[in-house]
Inverse folding.
C-alpha cells in the first residue's frame, strides 16, 4: 500500500512510542467517569472544590504555547477544551523531555487519549479540564479531513456525498449534525416501538430467507441454499408470515426489520430498507387511519418537540387528523380524467395522454398506479390518506364494503412520497387464491413484480383468519421526514454503493 507523507509520519510516530515503552493500543480498561456535555451542563463556579474528572476521546485540535497547551477533546457527547502544562503532566525533571517528545511530536490530531484532571473556567470564560495525567489510548494512522477556515472560506471540507456515505465513520467524526440525525433515528424507532408495546401488540421475528417472495409486488433477490438444494428469496415484505400469526391466535403482532428489493436506487430507494409492519385482529382500515395519524403525531412530538417539521422548502405538520381522498378522485382532481369504470385499454390511452410510457405487461392496476405516481403523488405535501384502490392494485386487500371494484386500502402520502400502505386484510381464502391467479397471469405477461402463489398462506387462511387490519410503514422514509433529510442515504449508516473505482 502506497502511503502519503502524513500516513508514513504517523507510522513512524507509532514505532517511536513503542520504543519509548508506550503502548499505543493499550488493552486495559480506561476508567472514564465524565463526558463533555455533562461536564459543561453541571459546572458551577461557586463549587467549593473543583470537580475531579476522568475523560477520554479524540484530540481534534491542539494549540502549543511553550510549556502550556490547549487541546479540544471530542467524546461521544461533544467537545470540551483541555488545558495541559508540561509541569503538571511530568512533574519529575527527567520526564519533561518525554513530554516534549510525546505530546508535541508523536501525538496527532485524531488520536484517542485519556485525561485525568479537574474542571475550571478560564479567563476567557470557557469551561475546561485542567489535565494532571495524559494516557495514550489509540494512535490514528490516517489524518482526519479537518475543515479549516480562512477569510470566512472553508477548506478541506468532507462534503462529497460519495465519500461521506462510503466512509461514514469519518463523516460522523468531522461533520456536525450527522450523528444527531442517527440519534433521532433511534428515537423514532424507540417511540414507535413504545406506542405499539403500550397498545398491547407483540413484537415478533419472521424469516428473512423465504421460499416464496410474498406480501408485496416487487422484484426479489435470489440466493441458493446448498444443503436443501433450493433457491430462496430475501424477503420483500413480512406480511404473509405476520398474518399467519393472526391465524394462530395473536391479537396484534408487529415486526421492525429489513426488507430487500432488487430494484432501482435513488434518493428515496435503497435495495435493503427497514420497515415496520403491524397486524391487528378485529380492526379495519378506518381504524388503522385513526391509529396511524395519532402514532405519527406522537413520534413527531417526541422527536422534534413539535408536530411541524421543515423539509427543504416545505413545512409538514403531522398533527392529526389527516385528509382522506380516494385514489380515483385524486387522479381526477389532478388530471381531469375520471377513470371510474374504464377498462384496461381505455386507461392505457389516458396514460398516454398524460405523457406516461406504458408497456404491454402492465395490467389495469399497474396503469392506474403509474398515472397516480406520475401526476399526483408528488403534489401531496401534507399527510394525506389516499384510499379505496382498485382491486387490480390490491391482491391482498378486502373488497370495499360499499364501492364495487374497489378495496379497503390506503396509502399515506407525505412530502410527495408514500410513507405507509395499509388494508382491511383479505381473509377469504377462495377470493385470495383467485387474486393470486390474477397475479400469475400478470407474471406470464412479463410483469416481474407480480406476486407468487403462496399455497401455504392459502392453507392458513382456510383455517380461518379473523377480520384484520394491517399496515407497513417505511422506517427510513419516516426518519427522513422527522429529520428533514431529502435523501435516504442521509439516514442509513451504510447505504448500498457501487464498488470503489480501482483507479
Amino acid at each position: 500500500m502506497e502511503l502519503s507523507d502524513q500516513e508514513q509520519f504517523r507510522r513512524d510516530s507509532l514505532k517511536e512510542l513503542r520504543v519509548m515503552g508506550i503502548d499505543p493500543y493499550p488493552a486495559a480498561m480506561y476508567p472514564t467517569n465524565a463526558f463533555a456535555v455533562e461536564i459543561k451542563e453541571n459546572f458551577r463556579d461557586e463549587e467549593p472544590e473543583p470537580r475531579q474528572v476522568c475523560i477520554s476521546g479524540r484530540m481534534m485540535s491542539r494549540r502549543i504555547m511553550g510549556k502550556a497547551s490547549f487541546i479540544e477533546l471530542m467524546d461521544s457527547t461533544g467537545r470540551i477544551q483541555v488545558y495541559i502544562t508540561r509541569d503538571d503532566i511530568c512533574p519529575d525533571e527527567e520526564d519533561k523531555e518525554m513530554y516534549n517528545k510525546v505530546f508535541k511530536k508523536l501525538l496527532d490530531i485524531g488520536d484517542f487519549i485519556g485525561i485525568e484532571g479537574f474542571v475550571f473556567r478560564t479567563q476567557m470564560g470557557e469551561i475546561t479540564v485542567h489535565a494532571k495525567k495524559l494516557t495514550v489510548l489509540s494512535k490514528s494512522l490516517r489524518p482526519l479531513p479537518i475543515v479549516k477556515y480562512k477569510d470566512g472560506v472553508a477548506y478541506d471540507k468532507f462534503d462529497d456525498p460519495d465519500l461521506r456515505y462510503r466512509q461514514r465513520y469519518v463523516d460522523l467524526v468531522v461533520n456536525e449534525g450527522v450523528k444527531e440525525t442517527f440519534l433521532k433515528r433511534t428515537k423514532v424507532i424507540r417511540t414507535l416501538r413504545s406506542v405499539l408495546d403500550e397498545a398491547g401488540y407483540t413484537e415478533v421475528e419472521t424469516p428473512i430467507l423465504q421460499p416464496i417472495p410474498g406480501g408485496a409486488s416487487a422484484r426479489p433477490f435470489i440466493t441458493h441454499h446448498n444443503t436443501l438444494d433450493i433457491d430462496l428469496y430475501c424477503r420483500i415484505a413480512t406480511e404473509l408470515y405476520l398474518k399467519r400469526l393472526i391465524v394462530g391466535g395473536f391479537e396484534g403482532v408487529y415486526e421492525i426489520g429489513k426488507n430487500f428489493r432488487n430494484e432501482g436506487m435513488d434518493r428515496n430507494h435503497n435495495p435493503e430498507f427497514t420497515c415496520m409492519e403491524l397486524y391487528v385482529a378485529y380492526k379495519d382500515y378506518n381504524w388503522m387511519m385513526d391509529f396511524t395519524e395519532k402514532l405519527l403525531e406522537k413520534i413527531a412530538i417526541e422527536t422534534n418537540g413539535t408536530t411541524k417539521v421543515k423539509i427543504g422548502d416545505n413545512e409538514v405538520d403531522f398533527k392529526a387528523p389527516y385528509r382522506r381522498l380516494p385514489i380515483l378522485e385524486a387522479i381526477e382532481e389532478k388530471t381531469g380524467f375520471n377513470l371510474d369504470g374504464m377498462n384496461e385499454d381505455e386507461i392505457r390511452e389516458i396514460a398516454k395522454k398524460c405523457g406516461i410510457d406504458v408497456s404491454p405487461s402492465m395490467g389495469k392496476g399497474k396503469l392506474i398506479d403509474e398515472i397516480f405516481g406520475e401526476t399526483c403523488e408528488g403534489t401531496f405535501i401534507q399527510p394525506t390518506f389516499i384510499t379505496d384502490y382498485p382491486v387490480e392494485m390490491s391482491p391482498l386487500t378486502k373488497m370495499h364494503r360499499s364501492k364495487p371494484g374497489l378495496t379497503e386500502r390506503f396509502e399515506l402520502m407525505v412530502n410527495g412520497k408514500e410513507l405507509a400502505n395499509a388494508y382491511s386484510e383479505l381473509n377469504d381464502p377462495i377470493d385470495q387464491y383467485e387474486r393470486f391467479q390474477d397475479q400469475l397471469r400478470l407474471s406470464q405477461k412479463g410483469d416481474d413484480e407480480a406476486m407468487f402463489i403462496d399455497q401455504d398462506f392459502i392453507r392458513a387462511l382456510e383455517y380461518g383468519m379473523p377480520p384484520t387490519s394491517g399496515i407497513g410503514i417505511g422506517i427510513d422514509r419516516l426518519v427522513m421526514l422527522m429529520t428533514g433529510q431529502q435523501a435516504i442515504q442521509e439516514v442509513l449508516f451504510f447505504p448500498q454503493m457501487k464498488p470503489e473505482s480501482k483507479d
Q: What stands out?
A: Residues 422 and 471 are 4 Å apart (CA to CA).
